[in-house]
Amino acid sequence: MRLVEIVGLNGATVIVCAILVAGLCWALVSGSRQSRVFILVALITGFVQSVVAATVVPVVIRQQYQAYFEGGSRYATMPIMAMTAAAVVAVDARLHRQASAEGGDRNALIRKSPRALAAVAVLACVLALSWVLDYRYVTQRMFWGHWQPVAERMLTACEHSSSDTITTWTWGNSTITIPCSRLHR
User: Fold this and answer.
1) pLDDT digit string (tens) for 151-174?
2) What is the pLDDT of residues 104-161, one digit of tens each?
3) Cα(81)–Cα(77) distance, rounded to whole angstroms?
4) Which phi and psi (to 5°) does residue 144 adopt?
5) DSSP letter at 66?
6) What is the rounded CA–CA span in Å between residue 93 and residue 27?
7) CB 84 within 8 A of CB 46
8) CA 146 to each of CA 79, 121, 149, 158, 178: distance values in angstroms, whole numbers, following the listed order
9) Of 118, 142, 39, nearest to 83 (Cα)?
């Protein structure tokens, strides 16, 4: 069962935000000076990018929630990557400080700490999963499916065009005329 189904969209948002805030506050309090600066810059940049995207393209904040489609997900990619990078830096700083406090070799951190290896694996899985999920939906930009057959049809149409142009459909049920000189194999 999904969190949204259990506590609703607003409840799920509050729970996830609380977890993120707690983790990032821990990183800011316990991190080194360099990691705190990086984390702050990453978070501020992600926040500013989100506000700018919502201001420039307000449809992303007005879309209704749908379980099968995440509207405006391309605008969320950079802030998500910034938060993930902040988490990676926070975990790395914590593990390096822990290894240094134990008198260990910072380069041998993975060999000495299975928890460090687990943390790296979890962060890699989060990154991989977020990228996979970002590209799972068919959108209006790819309603024809894969682009290779579309490009092949366009090139074939150009071969038979007497005007050296082709006309094709675009988003919003309109057409565009493309000069064949702009298409290459």
Assistant:
1) 888 899 999 989 999 998 776 677
2) 655 555 565 677 678 778 877 877 776 666 555 555 455 555 667 778 888 999 999 8
3) 6
4) -80, -10
5) B
6) 9
7) no
8) 28, 32, 7, 20, 20
9) 39
Token pair for 32 = 């080194």
CA distance 54 to 69: 18
- What are the phi and psi torsion angles at 48 (to 5°)? -60, -40
**172 φ, ψ (degrees, to nearest 5):** 80, 20
Element (H, E) at 176: strand 174-179
d(CA 97, CA 27): 12
Q: Which residue has the tokens 């879309």?
A: 63
CA dihedral 19, 59, 42, 31 (to 10 degrees): -10
